[in-house]
Amino acid sequence: METKEHDTIVVLDFGAQYSQLIARRVREQHVYSYILPYTTSAATIKELNPKGIIFSGGPASVSTVGSPRPDPAIFSLKIPILGICYGLQVMSIMNGGEVIRPLKREYGYAHLQLLETPSRLLKGIDNNAVVWMSHGDSVKKLFDGAVCTCSTENCEFTVVENEERKFYGVQFHPEVVHTPQGSTLLRNFVIDICETKAQWSMESFIETEVARIREIVGDKQVLCGLSGGVDSSVVAALLHRAIGDQLVCVFVNNGLLRKGEADLVISVFKEHFKIRLQVADSEDLFLDALKGVSDPEKKRKIVGKVFIDVFEKEARAAGDISFLAQGTLYPDVIESISPSGGPSVTIKSHHNVGGLPPDLAFTLIEPLRELFKDEVRELGKELGLTDEIVYRHPFPGPGLSVRCIGKITKERLDTLREVDAIFIEEIRKAGLYGEIWQALATLLPVKSVGVQGDERTYEEVCTLRAVTSEDAMTADWFKFPPEVLQVASSRICNEVQRVNRVLYDITSKPPGTIEWE
Ligand code: XMP
Question: Among 226, 300, 515, which residue has the most ligand 1 atoms within 8 Å of its CB, making it the best to mutate?
Fold first, then answer.
């Protein structure tokens, strides 16, 4: 973890669903922040030299035997600590305070009642400000040396502070949007109390990351698979900035891409960035392997296998490659580390990439592994990628094979590409692309009767789907103004020969998934 160059704040994770959000809110103050499991030893933290520590909330109750506790030596590091919810409670009981479980758990909005006691943490926060509460336990007796600076109707010790030791605690959640002045509180802690310099920005990230990549890579070569998606595009642009022609990109045109996709990738990366790009035109290979297959699982397996075969060939053709670049993001990194998973974050530096033969055991290079998705977008823009690339909707690895339901043929894929292109074009024209997480069309293996002019038609049915979502785990269908669907439907039926009926999918996830498969 790169921590030396700029001031950092460590978020100690007690299993909160909001830990990532806390780190993001701190970064929004232009101070670098990352998450460590609560089991991280005080010695490790000391070595990392953060300017402040935030204890996250968590689902446990401090009174439960075996509930998470940080290393007690953390309280002797002379580093400011802010405890949020469970973080406050755990700090309290480990420093002479008491916590009780009232009969009723408090969940929802509350209003702050500021007390007379001076408070650094609450500087600039209004009396009566709205905050978001979600807790079962409450502090009953303050921890040593602490004073209470704020209450709410149902919670006496809502904000507590020990100015001398720089220990602070809040019962509510300053990191969520339901606490509108939460960022002021976090800024007070991060900037004023922890005395950090707000120097972390995408420009500084690029500078340190470029230097780091150059140092790691030396005069060796790096291979990067481009998919056309945001993450791999940003990885390629960043690596190119760092090592220029030592980067070789591979783009596999599997014939399952959207309309114009291959041209876009070539024009951006080869023509604009002048990146060494190997394009593997493998449409026939994929379509031959998929011939006659309708089972979604089988399709996925086939696409995965052919991809590995093609990629392997390209990797060998690329020459003497030492590194393989991947667009792993911070949420993937955190997910793979459980809160109790070990003393510190270890970085996997050497392992085989799924499916590639052992003699192609590259060292992985993952330059985005410290970033959240919106930061990746910001980075992409800073590196000169266009909005079209940076704000793209997600697109599945197996491409249109999961959207062309039933047997896949070139003809059906072409039909689907046309439908998809019209749908996306109409969404863009209506100015709605940015409001939608993902929009997609599928082609069903169903024919229905229609009429066009005086003629009876018997053609395929397509579905349109657009969803809003935060993380693709859950999703809701997008409520289009009817005119947008009307124009899309009428254009599809008029312009796409083999489709005569358009359905709009109004299933949320769950129970539906985003893709149809
Ligand atoms: P589902 O359909 O499971 O999709 O609700 C959730 C998100 O994941 C994408 N998706 C995939 N992405 N390979 C990928 O790279 C896949 O096999 C795959 N299947 C689904 C989907 O587009 C959505 O964003």
Answer: 515
CA nearest neighbour of 325 among 410, 457, 217: 217
Dihedral (Cα; 449, 454, 455, 461), 10-degree rounding: -40
Is 175 a known active-site residue? yes
Distance CA 316, CA 360 (A): 8
Is 397 touching ligand 1 by the criterion CB < 6 Å? yes
The model's pLDDT over 91-142, given as tens digits with 9 standing for 90+, comes to 999 999 999 998 788 899 999 999 999 999 999 999 999 999 999 999 999 9
Catalytic residue among 150, 161, 175, 375: 175
**Helical (H) or strand (E) element with 108:** strand 106-111
Residue tagged 């009396």 (tokens) = 127
Annotation says 194 is catalytic = no
Edge-to-edge strands, sheet with 32-37: 32-37, 8-13, 52-55, 81-84, 167-170, 155-162, 147-152, 113-114
* Ligand 1 binding pocket includes 513 (Cβ within 6 Å): yes
339 has pLDDT over 80: no
Q: Which one-letter DSSP state was computed for residue 475?
A: B
**CA–CA separation, 150 and 161 (whole Å):** 10
Give the burial class of 87: count Cβ atoms within 10 A of its Cβ; 0-12 exposed, 13-18 middle, 19 or more buried.
buried
